[in-house]
Amino acid sequence: MSPTETTPDEVPAVSLTDVSMAFAGRTVLASVSLDIAPGSVVALLGANGAGKSTLIKILSGVHPGHGGGIRVAGEPASLQSPLAARQLGIQTVHQRIGEGIVPGLTVAENLVFEELARQRGNPFLSGARTLARAREIQAGLGLDWSDAVLRRDVTELGISDRQLLILARALATRPRLLILDEPTSALSAAEAERLFALVEKMRDDGIAVLYVSHRLGEIDALADRLVVLRDGCLTEDQARPFDWDAALRAMLAQAHEARTARPTREGEHGEVVLSLHGVRLFEGRAPLDLDVRAGEVTGVVGLLGAGKTELARGLFGAEPFRTGTVELDGRAYAPRRPADAIRAGVHLVPEDRHADALVPGWSLAQNISLPFLRPLSRAGLVSRSREDALGRDTVDALGIVTRDEHSTVEELSGGNQQKVVVGRWLAETPRVLILDEPFRGVDIGARRDIGRRARTLAAEGAAVLVLSADVDEVLEVADRVVVLAAGEIHLDAYGEDAERDRVIETIAVSV
């Protein structure tokens, strides 16, 4: 019997029978049936647009108007709202980092937020009791935030700590089913290891876990079982040991190797496009020098806190460098704001697409055209036909799965939202394209679509910078690898000198 098969007397934590969903006449899920046993980790795989987000939202009570049936602990369940789902023991930690965070409240108040919301008569716990309860909750996750941190406004936390906060709050309720949607997308390697240990403990404690991730190594290490969605249908269901070739074929509908070959360099290096001299990313750290060349993809690898985002935002004028100089094509370059960078041909795909890149409620075409309204305008009025044409061109070029260019960004899966952000900055050919964590939360197919577009752009003469904490993602696309730690460069190499083991060893000894 596989680890997740139920015995005749064992009732699944959650059962789905012929669950279906359609939007505007388009089928998104088609007769999905799935049992998730107590004390099991079931991994859910699927390309962008496969239906993963819709399935998660149905289980979370966000999409109540579905077909088919759901049972929780053997009893018919009506998940009409997120509150109804939580009351039945279904907790979800969403991919979007900000979802569930309540600005204006402290870290401690966010940790105990569900308990605050349930209070009767006295709607607020005292400050001392809130702090004491917050300490209990964070201890369950092995967090070590001080009381000073717990008293801060939650918006002062970094992305990874916000993710851990949401997870800790979900686990405090002792859920029947915990849904983790790309849970390591914003975590460092050490934080991810802590999460893995926690998932294993949850399994031992009888909690069912639905684990959604595009990182196959995580699934191979953690999951008892994997299921694959493709075009809204369940196309694969495996127990350990996993047949990855079959799983990837089921997900992508084509033979697919686990990793593409590294790009190879031929001939001389391209001309220097961007040159940094004596730039200091963090106070008290050594300044760095870096040349970025045309015709190349330069991959910058570093863990959280390495300085990748500081480097990207400084080059884009969002947080100008305080020391050092930068040259663009041999001329002084010192953008004081993003508009200066855009005019100079320096484009940035930011780390957090929701906070820094996408406008909710706007269509794909409007989001894509936003930085380039002047060439799309006549007499100060935006030409909608030109804007729509730009949207259609971007959809076609990057294979964005959408109804049409008028769809709002909220209608798209995470990977397709990321393609919109990347496509926006390709609307006008950049001199320098900076991609900060461009593969976060996207599946293998979307990752390679984005990677191929980056390499095509470099082949056309642009300089491309890809910044990521994932070594394999960088090695898959980059000609050259730079290892960054605490704002300093520890490796800068091409080809065989930038092999995976050396990159990982460099990171290990530099932290």
Mean pLDDT, to the nearest integer, reads: 84
The CATH class of the domain at 272-358 and 430-510, by name, is Alpha Beta
Strand content: 15-25%
Global Rg: 24 Å
Main pleated sheet: 6 strands, mixed
What is the number of helices? Answer: 19
CATH level-two architecture of the domain at 272-358 and 430-510: 3-Layer(aba) Sandwich
- Give the structural class: alpha/beta
- Low-confidence segments, given as residue ranges, are 1-5, 254-262
Fraction of residues in helix? 25-40%
The number of distinct β-strands equals 22
Task: Tell me what the structure shows.
There is one protein chain. Helices cover 34% and strands 23% of the residues. With 511 residues, it is an alpha/beta fold. Among the domains are: 99-174, no CATH class; 272-358 and 430-510, P-loop containing nucleotide triphosphate hydrolases (Rossmann fold). A 6-stranded mixed beta sheet has the order 6-7-8-3-9-10, with helices on both faces. It has a 6-stranded mixed beta sheet with strand order 16-19-20-13-21-22, with helices on both faces. Strands 2-1-4-5 form a 4-stranded antiparallel beta sheet, with no helix packed on it. β19, α17 and β20 form a beta-alpha-beta unit. The chain is globular, with a radius of gyration of 24 Å. The two termini are 43 Å apart. Residues 1-5 and 254-262 have low confidence and may be disordered.
